[in-house]
Amino acid sequence: MPSNPDWVKALKPSGPQGSELLAQERAKSTLNVDQLANFMFTRENLERNERILKILLADPVFDKSQNYFRGRTERIEAALARGKRLQQLSVQHKWTKEEFQVANDLISEPTPYGLHASMFLVTLKEQGTPEQHKLFLERAEAYKIIGCYAQTELGHGSNVRGLETTATWNPEDKTFTLNSPHLTASKWWIGSLGKAANHAVVMAQLYIDGKNYGPHPFVVQIRDLKTHEPLPNIHVGDIGPKFGYNTMDNGFLLLKSVKIPHVNMLARFSRVDPNTNKYVRPSNPSLVYGTLTYIRSNIVLQAGSVLARGVTIATRYCAVRRQFQDRDAPETEVGENQVLNYTMVQIRLLPLLAATFALHFTGKGMISLYQENQKRMNGDAGKLADSTGKRAPGPEELNPGTDLLADLHATSCALKALSSTTAAEGLEVCRRACGGHGYSSFSGIGSWYADYLPTVTWEGDNYMLTQQVSRYLLKSARAVLKGNAADNDTTRILKEFRRRQDIGAAFDVIGSDSDLVAAFAWRVSFLTFEALRHRDEDKQSWNSLLVDFWRLSTAHAQYMVVKNFHDALNDSNTTNQLDPETVGVLHKLFRLYALHTLEREASEFYSSAAVTVRQITLARTKTVMKLLEEIRPHALRLVDAWKFPDWQLDSSLGRYDGKVYEDMFYRASELNPLNSIVFDPYPDSKVLFKKDERANLRSKL
Amino acid sequence: MPSNPDWVKALKPSGPQGSELLAQERAKSTLNVDQLANFMFTRENLERNERILKILLADPVFDKSQNYFRGRTERIEAALARGKRLQQLSVQHKWTKEEFQVANDLISEPTPYGLHASMFLVTLKEQGTPEQHKLFLERAEAYKIIGCYAQTELGHGSNVRGLETTATWNPEDKTFTLNSPHLTASKWWIGSLGKAANHAVVMAQLYIDGKNYGPHPFVVQIRDLKTHEPLPNIHVGDIGPKFGYNTMDNGFLLLKSVKIPHVNMLARFSRVDPNTNKYVRPSNPSLVYGTLTYIRSNIVLQAGSVLARGVTIATRYCAVRRQFQDRDAPETEVGENQVLNYTMVQIRLLPLLAATFALHFTGKGMISLYQENQKRMNGDAGKLADSTGKRAPGPEELNPGTDLLADLHATSCALKALSSTTAAEGLEVCRRACGGHGYSSFSGIGSWYADYLPTVTWEGDNYMLTQQVSRYLLKSARAVLKGNAADNDTTRILKEFRRRQDIGAAFDVIGSDSDLVAAFAWRVSFLTFEALRHRDEDKQSWNSLLVDFWRLSTAHAQYMVVKNFHDALNDSNTTNQLDPETVGVLHKLFRLYALHTLEREASEFYSSAAVTVRQITLARTKTVMKLLEEIRPHALRLVDAWKFPDWQLDSSLGRYDGKVYEDMFYRASELNPLNSIVFDPYPDSKVLFKKDERANLRSKL
């Protein structure tokens, strides 16, 4: 590629430079960035992250400069190399699981080892017996076998009970036969299966003596340990390109009557007794639900940070980018206005900035609730065992009077759905707030958004989850009506609504924070009892209520976020660790998040009589606009507090130093392999390229 | 790539086959698909499309089977080959502009000739003199020169008046010097510039004797006609990969004091007199605004069809995909439920299905209004000439009393913003409604969505446009208050609001179609006078009102769509050409679109007192749900009426024959080049691939 001629190198952006503009921005606020960052992440973690970043930066295999230019095969080739090196570094530096995760987050793209390092190891550990740990887990931890977790099928996503793959017990030789009876039984979407894995935990319907005992996990070797070719009667491969996540080898797998020994069925919870040929029931199914709750709580916490990347990039760029003069500016004033000064940009970005903190504190809150509950659960273990047979009870079927798990589970479902939707859709808003340049790969938002999108589907499809949440809320409401409800936050707000229902609500949502939280609780309760009436009194079909359930679950999640953010700000821990100014700015973010949400969902707040039309109009035209103005000067420091290194963001627009246009130009003109090609532009010539110097380029890199 | 073993070839999807399910679907309704299609597109056009499709199918250069697998360079290489062949075919078959466009639509990805064939030719034609037509246009039409339209700069998107590139008149040798004074002056995003063009129409600030006369168009040769290398003092190239549109070579361009002759300034509207060295003013600037209005009206019409592709794919797949049993189904009923039966899927897809028709009829309506107005304008030409100097007046500055252009222009801005946002965001909803498989490239939605996204930014950024709309509405409202308003639809609804404001509105939005339309008009008028009060009485700054303006413009556009859809259904042309059953189903779609929109924007309808809380609740819980149920049986035939050939959709999920899973599997296992590679999966081995047979594959293709 020809490098830029000297006259081009001498050119600078016009007007005030990006670096000056960002320096001015940072000078507008005295918010203590490091203090806020330490409060959110701890100083130890931030130092650890820097240490790991240095290790990665020193290694050429992690060079990102060609990432955006590569096609799928080149990308997965690079990801494989990085995955290998990461594992070597992990051994060399004796990284903990958290440190390994930090390195992955900094690299910011999945590797083909992703599902080995997470679901394969976790499943072996949690669902394997000590004997199986020795046989599989130890070798997997040493990367002597590489595995994946094969549940979803071509024809079956969310509905696990509908899986078609079978595992039939053979009493004569004490083996299982794994089989894919139809094309739709093909395992599909399985991360790390397509190219990397030589083993898979396969979820299959267990059949003993013709009877189906439901889906269970089986360890199946699928590729030869030496040649890495598929074993006989196994058809396995990569499922092809996707909207994102293309450094991962999501795979397919078909099994034609493949035999595996008895020991390959993961047997910690349930098993087949090889002597009696009988099924032995799970001892404590709720522990599995606990894990799901933990995974979902982490998705909530992550969602804040996922979104914060987009908000960081867009906020920085909108402070550098100037466009049009202010229409009301005096004629004497020249120069264009920073895009971040336009209220139409603020109303898109600043509520998302507020959401990043709201989700962060909500995720933290969920994780500590989970940990608290785990302690309690471990004391109670065994109590919940299902002795009646048929199938393992879902947590929604446990009596909410006896434990908090059901409440926590429902909340984690609701919040997983809301937070991942907020992050995914928010990233797209950030991308568009960058105007035309948001569409360039160099914005760093598009690929990040595309890679994140599956989160709205996996670990429970966001729409499906809302049914579980509503089922739980209806159950709680029935218990409240019967007077035998447990004492937890959900039943408290439902009872409070019943108590004041006839008196009516008069929440001062603009003047009082606690009233604002209470208005969100009121809306949830109103929608719960309305849905209950439709279901129990009007006998409406479940299907006809799905839309109401989705609204109800969203309302519940929004209430939880508002409540958690409010609680976090009023925690003595917060007020002790942060300057009053910082707490003040966070408080404005809390109010912006809550009032902006209230206004967007105005119709439900009206219908429930939680607020008046006048209040909504006030919130919209005055309070929210005022909050935008007040938060505006702190925007840049607030995104700085998320502490994303430039290398992690990999964005021309989001550079900490504001050198946006220089970086765009550099990447386009000096890194872009397409500029090593010269077209023949005439339709009648047979030649496509007059010159193609990509080969030189490749050898240089 | 190993082809599938025989035992895999023998596998079929389980349960009822996709082809059976779609046949059942089509049998559920007797809607006359061909009649509806002929009504929408005319039979002649549909036959023409089929004829062109056959030509493309016969030519291996248009084979799409590797499209989703290719990296950027391979894609642009294929697109260049296709662009060349398309031009050859166009000459061979003597294609009209429309026929050429049909071929492009069927191929469904831009080629590097895209901006040559559109903006370059159009600009030369519309802004060139007869002498310039001879010099540039004729050669361009013969593809002897390839060009582009270079307006946007690295630092300047929407603000054309802020462009930095200069064109300085040299009286001594009667030339212009084109120069890029800063890095931000680099032309950027220019389609066909990066690799294909050897000429560019460059928009630059015209300077004569030190005075700036604003942006004007100049033809600049940028590459050698033989070697295709950049000419001296010109730095040009491709700007790199984007979120989509990667078969287009969007480019950058820097000019270092490049001299061009006098004849290279396009001089139909304004020019420099080479004898007096004086600027000669534009004779009829409003013609240019007319073109923009036409382009935007076409975006509205296209938006319906763009969205319809996604809706077609998602509707077909949701009829094939089955997941979970109906919760209320009797225990004896086995088998999973079609996803399209779930109300949560219907509420996402069917209002979008309604929107496709709403946008189609609205686009048609806009285009005939435009044509009507052009006729009238041609009679009036010359009247609008600006004799006062300074700068060309925008249409918003023309007196609405003397012509309809301002009204049409404002409406086209509002509708362009709403329709492109509806299509872009609707496509993403369609993608997610396909569940996990929507994320696969083989869904055909992701890439289509990504390619369409720039439409929300180009031809007027959607957010920026809403200011122009509001400015026009405020101006009309002021005229109404002063009593000197012109008579057009906008002033009529504003006057009607004023008349009934104190009496109050009582629209029967559920029982009466015309009341439903009137409620949308009422909301627009309410928001207009509210914004006017804020601006003129409260003296609020323009910037503080941008959010209100955006809402106002959206409300105006939604009113126009509802009104156009309503008018189309009540047109005698419609009722003559279509069966009453078809009209009946379209009528339900009209009501679904209107009531679903009303419910989503409930808060503004309340605040304006156009409807009561009770009406909204009824609309939400009863009417909309009922409409979903009634439209459901016709869904498949309605999407069939859009008549997209499978080849155009290029989607496993959207196949007309329902063979969804077979096609997914075929593409993944037999077309996927990644499956020609065998990984070495162990972190400590130095080798990445044990085997790489892609080369064999390439030579085969």
TrEMBL record, chains A, B:
Acyl-CoA oxidase C-terminal domain location: 514-678
Molecular function terms, GO-annotated: acyl-CoA oxidase activity; FAD binding; fatty acid binding
Protein name from the UniProt record: Acyl-coenzyme A oxidase
Q: What keyword terms does UniProt attach to this protein?
A: FAD, Fatty acid metabolism, Flavoprotein, Lipid metabolism, Oxidoreductase, Peroxisome
Active-site positions on this chain: 459 (proton acceptor)
Biological process terms in GO annotation: fatty acid beta-oxidation using acyl-CoA oxidase; lipid homeostasis
Q: Which residues form the Acyl-coenzyme A oxidase N-terminal domain?
A: 32-146
> Where this protein primarily resides, as one coarse class?
other
Q: Which Gene3D superfamilies match?
A: Acyl-CoA dehydrogenase/oxidase, N-terminal domain (1.10.540.10), Butyryl-CoA Dehydrogenase, subunit A, domain 2 (2.40.110.10), Butyryl-CoA Dehydrogenase, subunit A, domain 3 (1.20.140.10)
Looking at the UniProt record for this protein, which Gene Ontology cellular component terms does it annotate, in alphabetical order? peroxisome
Q: Which Pfam families match?
A: ACOX (PF01756), ACOX_C_alpha1 (PF22924), Acyl-CoA_dh_M (PF02770), Acyl-CoA_ox_N (PF14749)
Task: Report the pathway entry.
Answer: Lipid metabolism; peroxisomal fatty acid beta-oxidation
In this chain, FAD is annotated as bound at 152, 191
Domain (Acyl-CoA oxidase C-alpha1): give its ranges: 289-474
Catalytic activity field: a 2,3-saturated acyl-CoA + O2 = a (2E)-enoyl-CoA + H2O2
